[in-house]
Amino acid sequence: MHRTLESNMTFRLELFVDDLVASTDFYGRVLGFVIGEQQADGYTPLTNGHVSLSLNLRANLSDDHPIQAIVGERLGRGIELVLEVNDIEAMYKRVRSANWPLSGELKVQPWSLTDFRVLDPDGYYWRITSRGKDGS
Length: 136
Known about the structure:
Layout: E1 12-17, H1 20-30, E2 34-35, E3 44-48, E4 51-57, E5 80-85, H2 88-97, E6 104-108, E7 114-119, E8 125-130
Parallel strand pairs: 1-4, 5-8
Antiparallel strand pairs: 2-3, 3-4, 6-7, 7-8
């Protein structure tokens, strides 16, 4: 295995959304993220375990920003965001008890992991999956 130049890398994801209230509700109530202090411009940090996520208003992007969606375009198109959890059954029950619609039911996949799929309020596509036997 190749050693990376920077072994202390972390990953943080920033999603640009249209409705901070709806998105904060989804990530907090439905997926169990801890919501940090929202800044005046709307920037909102969230954490859950080793996952760092932040929300920001899409309106804060300039019209010519490379990730700005055009009118009618679904946000996050072409990206599958994956959350690995220790207890997939418990996470599935949490999402179902929040009455959040599923994009894909809980099932064992051909690659031997169990997962289900959801869309956030802006259409970002999430696969929530069990961990492999080796923790990956």
